[in-house]
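Methods — Computational structure assignment.
A single polypeptide chain was analysed. Its primary sequence is given first, followed by the predicted tertiary structure written as structure tokens.
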Amino acid sequence: MLPFYLGFLASLFAILSAVLLFAILLCLLSTERQAPHIRKSETHDLEQSQDTLVSIIIAARNEEEKIARCISSLIAQSYQNIEILVVDDNSSDKTSSIAAEFEGKDPRVHTISAGAKPQGWVGKSWPCETGFQVSKGELLLFVDADSIFEPKAVEYSVKCMHYGSIDMLSISPRVNLTGIWAKATLPLVSAGINLLYPMKKVNDPKSRRAYVFGTFILVKKSVYAAIGGHEAIRERIVEDAAIAQLAKSKGYKLRVMIGDGLVTTDWEHEFSSIYRGMERVFSDSIRSYGLVSLLDAVLVFFLGLYPIVFIVGYASYSIFVRNFMVGSNLGSLPLNAGFVASLMCVLFSLSVQAKELHITKAKKIGLTPFLYPIGFCLFISAIVTSTLKVSGSKSIEWKGQKFEQKPVARV
């Protein structure tokens, strides 16, 4: 017979997981309702000249398959007063030559070589800084090379900047998903961002929460220079969040909005790229917490995987008792309550997955939410490996480069 106290504890964990997941779901639903939408903003109806030059900086590394569509979508912007600076970050493919072809077609396009990355610079901060050094615009727009922009993207954003007296503006992208690895992990990453960095808090000057989407960061050049630009956060591998935190900490007005399809980007589809991408994101916060971050893996396990383990265990034990131990007390209240709670956990997890997929991708969702156990497994594994790498002063690999992320003291 299963000891009563073991059944009670197992059921208690299942019930706590259900309560916490339900609270998370409610929080995410509230966050979505309160998030501002750029298409619903009144600013796009305003008349405005195109006197302000916008320098669009594309940090590109080995993007030969996507750079052409990115540049083409920027050339087609309704806001014409732009310069497009394609900064080649030491690509080993045809990225630079493809970008150079556009220079002959449109004088607003310029291809620049970032050159060798100086000691101490990680991620894409160096090419971003290189683009800033040669830029001429009053506004800087940092974008990713694997993104596509609707014709009104720059126009709406510039109007929003001027109308709201905003110093730094970012809009969330729609995401193209390919393969089970991407479909399983993106909703969890999206939920994590929305839970830790709700737009209402990010946009509140009284809150310390700060985050921007690296696919689209529009900032006043004077503000960028005043905070020290990417040079000030050159050692941070998650440079988009770092520069947002820096700007807000210095009192500048930060605004993040739902992009409503104005920007579309691709999520990594290969297993190795997705896994290393999660390690990269996790490593930035792990630097301040060290081995304590392993507790996050435990929490994620109890939220996503423990309910499944409980359901399987309950069913297996039920079959065992029914066949070999007739008359047992399997139907005790704690185990039954734990079983119901675990079923609710699965339902809540599916709801979270579906909600985040609805926000981040335009296509039909289908059965994609049922991939969530795979996503939880990868999430837990990435937390563990990145924690061990950072704590052991080992390098994090991203985009074919290795970056050492040493632990730092919390401030």
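Note: The longest strand covers residues 54-60.
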